[in-house]
Amino acid sequence: MNDAATDLPDSNQSGTSSRVTLRHLADRDQDEFLELVGASTHLHRPWMSLPSTPEQFRAYLARYEGPDEESVLVCVRGSGAIAGMVNINSIIRGRFQSGSVAYAAFAPTAGQGYLTEGLTLAVRFAFEQLRLHRLEAQIQPANHASLKLVRRVGFRQEGYSPKLLYIDGAWRDHERWAITNTMIDIGPTSPHPTLPER
User: Fold this and answer.
1) Where are the alpha helices (DSSP H) in the chain?
2) CB neighbours (10 Å) of residue 102?
3) pTM summary value
4) How far apart are CA 24 and CA 155, in angstroms?
């Protein structure tokens, strides 16, 4: 894990204008992150649960130090304020080369399009730097804001899974959405070394 925003895709590299940058979640983010989570409870529940104590934050940060998980913050360009976060979870290599995305906006800047721009950059990061082929998003059918977000970014709906994920004390139904590296314009990248030749 690296704290430097320069290691993550910059919108200028993709030829588009952006108001946000991405950087990895780090120890130094604890206070701001926890404050934002507390201020954003009404946005996140019942859809997701984020760490709300220093102990939970440290455990959350440790989870994303492994090779099969990535957590990036969506930060407002210039000020560096955290506007949201995108996680790429359960990365599977080999023939699959896939990960599952989760994301959240934070209340002070929600509704201003920052998360759309951040998720777009995170998708590019996953395909160009992590060299994944596919990203999946599982979304509860009543989470209309999240469904609109993945549509804007270019995900396609692939199905519906009853009682797919355990969230807020119960097994919840989810729509399944996905995007592949062939669905967006990215620069040529060499395959990940774990991808078989045949």
Assistant:
1) 30-39, 41-44, 54-63, 114-128, 144-153
2) 17
3) 0.91
4) 23
Superfamily of domain 5-180 in CATH is Gcn5-related N-acetyltransferase (GNAT) (3.40.630.30)
What's the pLDDT band for 53 if we cut at 50, 70, 90? very high
Q: Is 13 a residue whose pLDDT tops 90? A: no
Closest CA to 104 of 41, 57, 157, 159: 41
* CA–CA separation, 162 and 18 (whole Å): 37
Maximum mean pLDDT: which of 7-21, 39-53, 133-147, 184-198: 133-147
What's the pLDDT score for residue 5? 41
3-state secondary structure of 147: helix
Q: By the 8 A CB rule, do 174 and 161 touch?
A: yes
Do the Cβ atoms of 184 and 127 come closer than 8 Å? yes
Structure tokens at 78: 């210039």
Question: The tokens of 10 are what?
Answer: 């910059």
Greatest pairwise CA separation for the chain in angstroms = 49
